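Writing this down once: the sequence line spells out the residues, with the fold written below as integer tokens. I am pasting one below:
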Amino acid sequence: MPEDVRARHWTGTSVGLLLTLVLAAVLVTVLPGGSGEDNKAGCTPHTVRSWSADGPLTAEFARYGDDATRGDDWTGGDGTHSVRLPDGRLLWLFSDTYLGQVYGPPNPYGEPYTWRDTTAPLVRNSAVLMRGGRLEATLPAPLFPDPAPNQWRWPVAARVEPRSPGSGEQVVRVLLWVRTAGSSPWIYGVPTATEVATLSLPDLRVESITKVLDEQLVQDPSRRVLFGTTLVEDGEWTYVFGGDDGRAASRSVSSAYVARVPEGGLAEPGAWEYWDGSAWTTGARPRPVLGDGRRTGVGSAFSVVRRDGTYVLFTMAAGTKGLAAVTSYWACSPTGPWHGPAKDFTAPLPVGQVAAYNPQVHPELGDSRGLVLSYDVNWLEAAGASAQLNRNVSLYRPRFVTLRLVPAR
């Protein structure tokens, strides 16, 4: 099977870091030092006081994926992101996605799992609607067509914002990663560009797709930056975080970057400002805000949330931990300085040779119980992954934990 086809069975937004990762959620610790940014009003180190598996939410995706009522809907996927719509519905966005029927249990392999046959369609992206905590429908998939032969689009973070600055009409903006088929080490695609799709409300029709950052002229693919793994709204600005693919080129860690866009401007390339290491600018290459190439850093899939004036970043561990755990960092500003990494703890995983990746926070699901974080699950080794995902469909669906995030004492 060609490498670009094999990649469809073991891919998602955590490019290049999927093969040996065991997911964890984390404790956020206090490190000494820092600049004046650490003294911002309301900014204090935060800690995860406790965590628990979110069984009902995990079970809801299992219920919907196992439902055999339709033959063209979602049965599994990765790259899990979500956004709350004005009418209360929740839009879930996925990267590589299986559609079609599931069967059993039992299955032809003699195992007590629901299963899919080898003809199940696989598309590069999909979107599923939830209302009142219940998944209802899959939008026609793929939602975002391939931009060119041997290229595809993976949706990442999204938000509802004015159609243009000051407009009273709202639309959904979805950040997209464009990747191009490549050979080793780029078996998950060569990073190519960041785009923004505009979806109408309430019907979620794709109106347009705009390229906001073209990285094809950057000769070293490992230094290309794709934005949108996570975003944070803060006042008049939307802070959009991104990462490079340093891991794919066998570097020890990847780096995090940040851009900012005024409200209503996500689909306007000229409205984007990138942090160049000392200032926000539209004319310079972005510079890392986190990652020293050794002990600290991120993967291309990480998540940031703002709580009580403090930014908290969840990602896989770097340095001596390799890809064995997810850790976190905290900062008083999206540009840092970022403090960490912090102590980790392991979240639930199914039995077998599996890995977890792409920790994503879903603030729109938070309530008095705490902060909801999802993680994707896949077969550990790329070889044979397709067969394993077909014989046990639960291996390619998101799982959830609830974190109790509080100021550190």
Notes: Residues 1-36, 319-324 have pLDDT under 50 and may be disordered.
